[in-house]
Structure formats: C-alpha cells, structure tokens
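Task 17 of the worksheet. Students: predict the tertiary structure of the chain below and write it out as structure tokens. Keep your answer in the requested format; marks are given for formatting as well as content.
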Amino acid sequence: MKKYLVIIPTYNEAINIERLLKEIIGLNIVNLHVLVVDDNSPDGTGLIVRKNIKKYPNKIFILDRKKKEGLGRAYIAGFKWALQKGYQNIISMDADFSHDPKYLPDLIDKSNDYDVVIGSRYVKGGSIVGWQWHRYLNSWGANFMTRLLLGLKQRDVTAGFKCYSRNFLESLDLDKIISNGYAFQVEMVNLAHDLNCNIIEVPITFIDRRAGESKISGELKRSIKVVLELAKRKKTYWQFIKFGIVGFIGTVIDLGIYNLLAIIFGFNIYFSRVISFTLATSNNYILNRKWTFQSHNKKIIQEFGKFFFISIIGLGMNLGIMKIINPLVKDISSEIIRKNIPVIIAIIIVLFWNYFSNKLWTFKDKK
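Model answer:
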C-alpha cells in the first residue's frame, strides 16, 4: 500500500503544532504519517512534537536541524528523509493552520493521477480569509508576474500546500535547488513544468495565520532574485529580451516619424501616431520573424496578418492610454516633453501585450 508523508517545517510554532498534529492524525487516513522538520526552535516546538510522538507512535516523526536555514532547505531535508523511508507521496504543509488539514484527503486522492497536486487559492472554489486588500493584491500580482516570466499555466504558483509524487522528487537533483526561502514553492512548480509533469490545482480556502509570528518578512527581495534567475534559464526570457530590443528599434523609428509629422510638419498627433506606428510595426514584424522567434512559417501573409492584428489592438490600447495621460501632462511647458511622455508610457505598457500575444498566437511553436 502507498505511504503518505506530510512534511511540516517549524520554527517557533509551539502555539500551533500540537493541535495541528492532533487534527492530521484524527483524519484516520491509512498510512498517513507526519514529519516535523524543526530548525532548533527556541520556544520548545521540538519538545511538544516529541511528546506527541509518544502519544502517536509510528505516526509522527521529527527531524532536528541545528539552525534556521530557510523554508526551502527544511523541505529538501524532509524530502530526502521521505525518499529514504520509502514514501510514495510527500505533502508540504504550513504549521500555522493557513492550510486546513481537512483538504488532505483531496490532495491524496488526486495524487493517484498527478505528479504535483496544488492546494490553490486562485482556482474556482478557492478563496482567502483574513487578508486585507493590499496583501491580496500583492499575492495576486506576484503570481501573475511569476507566471508571465516563467511561462507557467498554474494559477497559484506560490502555494505552499502541495502533494508531490515520489517519481517527481527522484527525478530532481535536490542539492541544486537554488531557493532557500518562500520562492522554493515557485521553483518546485517550475521544475515540474519543465519536466512535463502532470500538475493539477484543487481549490482550498487559505486562512491567514491566527497565532504565532509570520516568517515572511524580508522574503520579497530574495524571491524576486530567485524568479529572475529561473527566468534567465528559459527560452522565453531571452525571447523577451530580443523582442524588447526589436521594440526599442521600432520605438526609435516610431518616435522619429511621429516627431517629424506632429512637431515639424504640424499634423494632428493621433494621425501622426497611426502612421508612425504602422511603419514601426512592419519593421518589427520582419525583425521578430527572422531573429526573435526564428519563424519558418511559409504562410507569411497570414503570419503578418496576425502580427498586424495584434498590433492594431495594441494601437487601440496605445491611443487609449495616450488619451488618459494627455490631460495629466497638459501643464508641462516643453512641447517635446508634453507630447512624448504619453507615447513612451503607452509603448512600455503595450510591449507586454504584444510580446505574449505574438508568442502564443502569431509565432506559436507548433511543436
């Protein structure tokens, strides 16, 4: 029969750990065990776990570490322990009740068919309780940008409540995982994605920590570094750099023609914008086809039509953004600055739209 292991990293979780262990064991799931990976908590978390080990022999285990090295290192130590002990599925879980034990049967059930099961806050049926709007916005934004940079399809890539298959974990070189902190959650999803593993998200209600202190302070900067490092290893990252270079060249052409028509010859700024944008777009298509995406599609007219269609939508967005920003800069005395600020801001925003739309449609890799 399959054996399942819940890994719970702890540091100063004495206020939560006993009740959490009781609830997990109380589910009475056959062959479900718990491993607490404790980073030498000074509040006595380890002592409480040992008391519960005596209460539930062969159900609860503890792995003591000498010092606090971060969430990622704690999980890696737990994964190695689980693989040595022959567990088929390994579940990562927080100690603060933000991950409700009642969802464990759902994760275990799906683990029969999937390599990675994510307890997700952002799929249909998932939710968050106890967060203020700005924290929700930060989390949603972090997920959105991470998905774009790494090309991930999953909605909740920063989730910590997951079930991994033994096969997936054995396929990794755990010592080469670069994240020590919370970005570890992203890196694991990214690794599973790159290995073409079967991944599914199941909805959960995430409940904000009610007791104890949060460990997330200072993690944002470190997480950004990890995500950027992971992005550098991907084809998408370098494509985006190339697309940006092509966009810069197109922008020089765009702004040059725009200033020539609007400022030197005095044409209407929106008419000038349409002409400059059209010529720059044609240039961008040629460079992106040959260099950025290296397309071999023989249906050039159809491909150009898609590129131009996306660009037209981008143009509409561009003009809309200009209309919004123009009144905000009307009091700037310099005509050159006043007329170019809305254009530059619009170009930057539309760059992201153009890149991902063309990657996923115009120049989509048929393989």
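Marker's comment: The CA atoms of residues 240 and 277 lie 20 Å apart. The longest helix spans residues 235-264.
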